[in-house]
Amino acid sequence: MSEARMRLLGTATGLFYAEGIHAVGVDRVIAEAQVTRATLYRHFPSKDDLIVAYLTQADDAIRERVAAARAADTDADDVIRAVAGFIVEDIKSPGFRGCAFLNAAAEYPDPEFPIHQAVLKHRQWFLDTMTELFTATGKPDAEPAARHFVMLRDGAMTAGCLTDPKPICDTFLRGVDGLLTYRSRSDQT
Q: Rounded to the nearest 5 degrees, what angle is found at the Cα of 165, between the Cα atoms of 103 and 107?
């Protein structure tokens, strides 16, 4: 990746996440990245392409963190807890403004739009990954547990930027622990 492309994407990432995608125009990205308009459009033919690149970069970062958790632990419960742990780290980080994907979906609600498609692609991968991890725990209710995990994550990411993140994170981790220790009715008989 060229230095100019990295600077453009880094600048756009910071601005889009902190201020919102619609609130930031390409002129601002160009000015803050200190590049020309031609340089922007050489690397990103449209603002939509820049936004998709921003979301793709965020997706790649999450995939890398999940892969690292999987590489570090062979026990699926521990991997799930590690994923929950990095979600909590994000929520507690300075400047946290919620989930980049949920924020983008709110700004681009049309499911046919490329930006919304990038959000859906990431969310499907995340749900599939969590389903795979919950399946590896040996529990028979892996798919509902994975959906529940994603729902807990969405709620924590949303609430975590509205108020004190500590109780939000504690509640999220308690919910994840509940998913991992829950015994279905068929398990209890």
A: 10
Residue in this structure with the two tokens 């994603």, named with its chain if needed: 150
Distance between CA atoms of residues 17 and 56, nearest Å: 13
Per-residue pLDDT, 139: 84
Cβ atoms 25, 37 nearer than 8 A? no
187 pLDDT more than 90: no
Give the 3-state DSSP-derived string for the chain, with helices as H, strands as E and coil as C: CCHHHHHHHHHHHHHHHHHCCCCCCHHHHHHHHCCCHHHHHHHCCCHHHHHHHHHHHHHHHHHHHHHHHHHHCCCHHHHHHHHHHHHHHHHHCCCCCCCHHHHHHHHCCCCCCHHHHHHHHHHHHHHHHHHHHHHHCCCCCHHHHHHHHHHHHHHHHHHCCCCCHHHHHHHHHHHHHHHHHCCCHHHHC
Q: What is the mean pLDDT of the chain?
A: 94
Q: What is the pLDDT of residues 6-39, one digit of tens each?
A: 999 999 999 999 999 999 999 999 999 999 999 9
Q: pTM for this one? A: 0.92
Separation of alpha carbons 70 and 91, rounded Å: 21
Return the ∠ at Cα 65 (arms to 178 and 149), rounded to 5°: 25
